[in-house]
């Protein structure tokens, strides 16, 4: 592994993991729609890792920091798009980057996708991976549990768009992924 550890390094993180997925539908975007209209606006995923299954309709665009422009990431049959999120960026002391991306459906037809967000064991404490810093003083971020981080992110995001939200961790059955329920009441976007 590129971090210099063996395949068991993430075992504790992967125990009783918290994961969720969304079923997304992007109606075709009208040709005369506003140039800033997006299916999903520019953002970075805030969890650890996302496996994204796209249907057969393109629309995903990824920001290239060097070129300062978006490039398309079209669907490849049988393949997932693998995306690191903000929490992995933090875990790796910014050695690995959480990319900015957005979706604009210019295809004229309906687009579907399934992002699967994997955030690991909610009780696991994310603290700088040792091979990502030379001395403890180089650590940029304070340790934080997966649960605290994800919960805070949900609060930030949904409060910002003016939607009341309640997030609660529910009991889970041994061997099954934990579920983080986010209840969203009516509100304005
Ligand atoms: O629908 C897509 O292709 C991307 C969705 C996405 O970026 C997200 O849900 O975070
Ligand atoms: Fe995303």
UniProtKB/TrEMBL annotation:
Protein name, UniProt field: Fe2OG dioxygenase domain-containing protein
Species of origin: Aspergillus novoparasiticus
Origin: domain of life: Eukaryota
Domain Fe2OG dioxygenase: 14-120
Entry's family note: Belongs to the iron/ascorbate-dependent oxidoreductase family.
InterPro entries, alphabetized: IPNS-like_FE2OG_OXY (IPR044861), IPNS-like_sf (IPR027443), Iron_ascorbate_oxido_reductase (IPR050231), Oxoglu/Fe-dep_dioxygenase_dom (IPR005123)
């Amino acid at each position: 592994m590129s971090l210099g550890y063996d395949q068991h390094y993430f075992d504790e993180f992967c125990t009783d993991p918290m994961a969720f997925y969304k079923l997304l539908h992007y109606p075709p975007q009208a040709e005369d729609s506003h140039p800033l209209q997006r299916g999903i606006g520019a953002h970075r995923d805030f969890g650890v890792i996302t496996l994204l299954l796209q249907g057969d309709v393109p629309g995903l665009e990824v920001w290239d920091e060097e070129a300062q422009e978006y490039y398309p990431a079209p669907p490849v049959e049988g393949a997932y798009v693998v995306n690191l999120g903000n929490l992995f960026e933090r875990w790796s002391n910014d050695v690995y980057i959480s990319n900015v991306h957005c979706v604009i459906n210019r295809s004229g037809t309906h687009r579907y996708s399934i992002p699967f967000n994997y955030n690991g064991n909610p009780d696991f404490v994310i603290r700088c991976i040792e091979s990502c810093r030379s001395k403890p003083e180089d650590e940029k971020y304070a340790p934080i549990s997966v649960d605290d981080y994800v919960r805070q992110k949900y609060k930030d995001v949904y409060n910002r768009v003016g939607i009341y939200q309640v997030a609660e961790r529910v009991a889970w059955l041994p061997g099954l992924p934990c579920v983080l329920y986010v209840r969203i009441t009516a509100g304005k976007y």
